[in-house]
Protein: Cytidine deaminase
Amino acid sequence: MNSKKLIEEAKFARNQAYVPYSKFPVGAALLTKEGKVYHGCNIENAAYSVTNCAERTALFKAVSEGDREFVAIAVVADTDRPVSPCGSCRQVMSELCPPDMKVILTNLKGDVLETTVEKLLPGAFHSGDLHGK
Ligand SMILES: O=c1ccn([C@H]2C[C@H](O)[C@@H](CO)O2)c(=O)[nH]1
Ligand SMILES: [Zn+2]
Structure:
């Protein structure tokens, strides 16, 4: 699947966002090695900090269904620049995705920034840092 199609999938996912507080819907589409797409949207909560971002929704759905091999993720929001994933999502992507995995950031105007997991969080804390290993 090409980037353009994955972006369309992310826009589709954005329609399901539950955003009564921010009114800022975000969509994500996560592509597996086998070609399956997991959709994610942001899901907010009256206790704001419990909110789940679109990127993490897609990743947690995939892992919970037994999929762990990912090749790309597209994220879309109505931003001036291509949407920029938050720190928590960058950390979760670093944990669950290959460092060189493609991350396609975009907005409704059609600006596209293609980057990687590693570029979004250089020097991420990872499993090898635990227990002095
Ligand atoms: O990359 C991003 C940035 C923000 N949000 C969500 C979290 C919250 O619901 C709203 C405003 O921060 O947007 C995402 O889902 N992904
Ligand atoms: Zn996030």
In short: The CA atoms of residues 26 and 77 lie 5 Å apart. The first helix runs from residue 3 to 14. The mean pLDDT is 97.
